[in-house]
């Protein structure tokens, strides 16, 4: 299988260098020659939206995605309306930053009734679409690993994300494939093919053995068991040629100086992705 | 939905009282009026097979399952043969103990090639069937939660377990439904219906929020988010009327005196299952 030959598609998902402010992440990306960035909303808020936009544009970086919208389910109608309002702000921020996609982490159930929560996710996306379309922002449903079903996302497989996305126009709603969340799935490759031109993002990291931590246990590419290159080539075969985000939630990575993380990330990207 | 009215179907999976020897677990079950037990092979080995059989029979307990066979994939043919030999011994032990089913935890991949590992699981089961049939032992494929895909089982969904089981006669190979492993699955109820008379076991515990530990984080029924009664009634609607095993891997539960655990387990069983 062919290796990647350059860094044209490489994107720094900002969580990978969580200690850095948005400005530091922008400057670090420029130093490292990484052309894409995926900011997080909390970091954008800290820096200010207009400032964030200016840092990114002045540095000549492109924005692969904004992390994140979602969290649609809530116990009450008022709660769901609050979530929707927040998603509308996320859409506006994505548009302002020139992000190609707003990533949706769809949220957990407010109670034991996971089926109802899934219905609320569908309703939330449906209600968000007009605003997203008006702002030229595409929505990307990111299925999360099933171990986050109770706390972060009731959307847990790529098949489920595809079924949900297919209820809407492909221009409006697609899916985001993160290797950490989906690598275990026996239907993975058929669902990647099915996703086709709805794939709005591809995130890489690795699954370390043993898993050091439920949330902060993701590994640098090459440190775990995921068939990264096979998955990258599958999303390409399905039609995705866009940016490849490195998104690593890991305390040890966060404790490493950002420039070192980016250097290692570039090396592993060519070697393993 | 109707509650369970008595303890006729209640089974103590021995891991729930991991500090107890087999003899202590048998005696504790008798004290608590729990009619079924699911021993673990390491505990049977400690007590001796013939002794274990005698304890259980003398106490008048029934054996819902033996935990566990499986772990089929290995890097070499010799390694896979060793695993198969061990599975044959597990079958003999299940027969000796009068277990209704040998639970199969199918094992992780020896490398990154998870597809090949899954093929090795299928081959291992196929090779084990004649021995199991000769000993009157049914095999139950237990899909494990995807968070265990790299370390314990490449079989991670009930759908995948069903597809695998359906390659063989229903008399030989079925599936085991453990709520902790499958509750998150968007296809759960259709796959329970599909499993039908292949369901060979039903295991209960709960998914605590937040998850305290990847391996030892299961909760007592009622302490988490799983729709236990809905799932129990679904397996019954599919045709399963057999024992219901309480299987809890949890350090805090293990640190509690066994008699207290069994008392709480009985209370929660009637209240939540």
Structure description:
- Two copies of one chain form a homodimer.
- In chain A, the strands form two sheets. In chain A, strands 3-2-1-11-8-7-6-5-4 form a nine-stranded parallel beta sheet. In chain A, strands 9-10 form a two-stranded antiparallel ribbon.
- Chain A has one domain: Divalent-metal-dependent TIM barrel enzymes (TIM Barrel).
- Chain A is α/β, with parallel strands linked by helices and 273 residues long.
- Chain A is globular.
- Chain A contains eleven helices and eleven strands.
- The model of chain A has no long low-confidence stretch (mean pLDDT 97).
- Chain A has helices spanning 22-32, 41-47, 49-59, 77-97, 114-134, 158-165, 179-182, 188-195, 228-237, 251-254, 258-272; strands at 10-13, 36-38, 62-63, 66-70, 101-105, 138-141, 173-178, 199-204, 206-207, 218-219, 244-246.
- In chain A, helix 1 (22-32) runs parallel beside helix 3 (49-59) and helix 2 (41-47) crosses helix 3 (49-59).
- The interface between A and B is medium-sized, with 29 and 29 residues.
